[in-house]
């Protein structure tokens, strides 16, 4: 379907603008590091695209490292040290120095480790700190785990919006679990000021970085974050079910008491002692045998970041989302969609969420026409912009197809 005639002037102007923006894009060449087709893929905030180096690396891990070397690969292929080695690779993407991130397990498991560990760091109910605060708008699993962690540690759970967090903090606050970016709306929360507010009352700040790591600067070390978790299959492009990571600030590592003290976090893992003695450093966040196939696929995927700064990614992310909103405003009839993502750059992640009647059906038709985003109940169209492989022509096409879909 061609563009509606009454939109033709805007279409020509914005299509030309997209060409100019793509021509000046310093990250444009990074797109070739991914396996892509002619689909406009705006769902990297759910599952990132496949980096081109991953298939060959996985084949080597399976055929040579596992198939030929077998057990020798724990030493000779570096399997045993993969969790901390890959953690160090992720560290600069979230503003952390080496030695503070360990990769392994799912985000959910790491949220549990971090939150229970945070309550213990704070002293828990025995010290009068008997309250866990959680983001009421969080991804459901974080809420479920926060409720369980509070119950298991003898704390009371208080669920409030991030804006309400400062007013509920007190000397009873043990830990606060917050999302850096809201998964529904794309709202970016103020990690620096909220962390400072938690510290002002003596609490421990835990951040979920699933929708920010790889899309924008985080500044874990600079802003004094205590503990953080994140997935690797969104903006880090690690693949479906790729392992998550746990950040433990260096000053807390000698007191971090994980609720899952597995054998690989033991100070002497091969000593097989019946009593537990934790390893030094972030290794305390390890639990069981590393999931090597997906972990080494992630390590290969992270090579797309060679020579790429998070600051340049953030600049392009804001430019992409600004341009998308400009195109939507020009192409889509007024009142047909409403943006629920903040317009202010300081409050926006790397996605745009549009409220739309029949959003589920609209997204289905968009996907059929080669524009892939996703739908969030009850009425949200969600578009994620991964600057490493999304271009401005993609953005213009997505907005145009959206407009055409809404009038068809």
Structure description:
The protein is of the alpha/beta class and 408 residues long. Helix content is 36%, strand content 14%. The protein is built from 12 helices and 15 strands. Helix 2 packs antiparallel against helix 9.
List keywords for this structure.
408 residues, alpha/beta, seven-stranded mixed sheet, four-stranded antiparallel sheet, 12 helices, 15 strands, globular
Structural class by secondary-structure content: alpha/beta
How do the helices and strands follow one another from N- to C-terminus?
A: HEEEHHHEHEHEHEHEEEHHEEHEEEH
- The outline comes out as globular
Distinct helical segment count: 12
Largest sheet: 7 strands, mixed
